[in-house]
Amino acid sequence: MGGFVNAPIHDMLIRIKNAYMARKTHVNNVQYSKLKENILNILKKHNFIKDFKIVEDNNKKFINIQLKEVINPIQDIPVIKFYSKPSRRVYVSYKRLHKVAGGLGIGVISTSKGLITTKDAKHYKIGGELLFEIY
User: Fold this and answer.
1) pLDDT digits (tens, 9 = 90+) for 36-89
2) DSSP string computed for 20-36
3) What digits encode the pLDDT tens for the residues 3-41?
C-alpha cells in the first residue's frame, strides 16, 4: 500500500471527530475508497460509528456515515491519534503493540492480512503499518 493513501484517511477521521464535537449525527459525501470502507467496518464493529452507506452519484462513489448521538461528551467524542503519515511511515512488530486506552480503544494496523485491529495483529503475531488509534 502506497503512502498517498493516508491523507484521505486522516481527513475522514477528522471529519468524524469534528462532527461529533459539533454534535452532528452524519458525515456525508466522503469520497469512497476500499480502504475507508474497511476502516469504517472496523469503527462500526467497535461501536465508534453507528453505520455507513455507500452511495453512487454520476459514477462517483461516496460514503455517508451515521454517527452515534453524543450524550456524554467525555465518553462519546473519540480521541484519535495518528501514527503513520505520508511523510513518515510507522511500522511496528506485533511485539510492540499494546492495549489502547487500557483496552477501551482500538488501534488500526495495515498488515499483509489487510486492515485489522492491533489486538488482532498481536493475536495473529503479525506487524504492519500502524495507522491510528481511537478511543
Assistant:
1) 999 999 999 999 999 999 999 999 999 999 999 999 988 889 999 999 887 889
2) HHTT-SEEEEEEP-HHH
3) 455 689 999 999 999 999 999 999 999 999 999 999 999
Sorted by where each begins, the domain ranges of the chain are 3-134
CATH of 3-134, one of 1.20.120.140, 3.30.1490.10, 3.40.50.150, 1.10.443.10: 3.30.1490.10
Is 62 strand, coil or helix? strand
Strands 91-92 and 114-117: unpaired
- The helix-helix angle for 34-45 and 6-21 (nearest 10°) equals 40
Give the CA-trace dihedral at 90, 83, 35, 106, to 10 degrees.
110
Query: Each residue of 82-126: pLDDT tens digit?
Result: 998 878 899 999 999 999 999 999 999 999 999 999 999 999 999
